[in-house]
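Regression report. Comparing outputs from two consecutive submissions.

Submission 1:
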Amino acid sequence: MPDRLTDALLMRVGELNGVTMLDEGELLSLFPPKAGVDRRSAEDMLFYLAERKFVEVEYAAEGTYCIRPLPEGRLYLERAAEKRKEGRRSALRCALFSALGGAAGGIAGGLLLLLASC
């Protein structure tokens, strides 16, 4: 399982569609500026993804990279998106049932107070 920055790199490479040539500057621009990623760490992440068959690095020399996303990488991205979507659904469901439970408790408390005062 890739870390957050490697996951971001895979997401960006997955958006490229097909074989893409990137120079060192373009590769570093795939990361957020606050991430503090240098050439060496970006290259390490790229080869980490290649080892796990998420991308194919067809050429890497002198700061130029030829990268192609692979089906395993696309499948990983689809599964990650589905997990995020399911997490949002779960949070929405939890909030809905909490609100309904709170409302039901308030109504029940009000009815008990009404019955006790009669």
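Submission 2:
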Amino acid sequence: MTRVLCLFVLTAVAFGLVAFIAWHPELWEPWLDAQGITRDDPVFLRGVKVMLVVVLGVPLTALIYAIGRLGSDGTQKDIHGYTVLRLKAGTLWFMTIACIGCAFLFFAYPELDPEAPHPWAFQAAGLFCLFCIPVFLNAKVRFDASTLSVSNSFGGRSTHHWADLVDVREVAEMKHYLFTFRNGKTARVSYSYAGLGELLETAKSKINVHAGTADGRKGR
């Protein structure tokens, strides 16, 4: 939690710095004029983009990642004996607030700009953001000794048999683990789920068992 607070303060300071610079062009425009650079100059526009990425993007990305990691890393058991993984509390809070904020902006924009084309598109986007909230809240991974069930991005679920599992691969750039099964189907499990260690340990043990069984059959 201390890390989140520190990153929040750092991000707030970064936003304040950018806002201060934007509201006081008299501090930097004379220097630009001396260099022969105008606001419409491609060099100036590229410099602004780089500054925003470094000053705002880096601390904001770190803050989002830190919030997503908040919460316990334990698993649960349901009444059917399945081990259940749910999204971490930090991820749920962040995604819920973000979806509500985006929905508000989409619904409000046509009111702020009556001449905006296709206002229904903004309303549809707002409804989609609200639809995402129960999807995140109900997202979970369930597994027992024989099956694995994973929520997808549209609120549905896919169920797979451990006996068909052939590979588990970490996709670091997409922040998820990819489970590949013998029938060609795949399942993606986000880093944001609590209890991933137990799931990955189970998956690796199932692959080793099936590999040993297959080697034994070949030996015969």
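Expected: both submissions complete independently.
Actual: both completed, but the second showed a warning that disappeared on reload.
Relevant detail on submission 2: The chain has six helices and eight strands.
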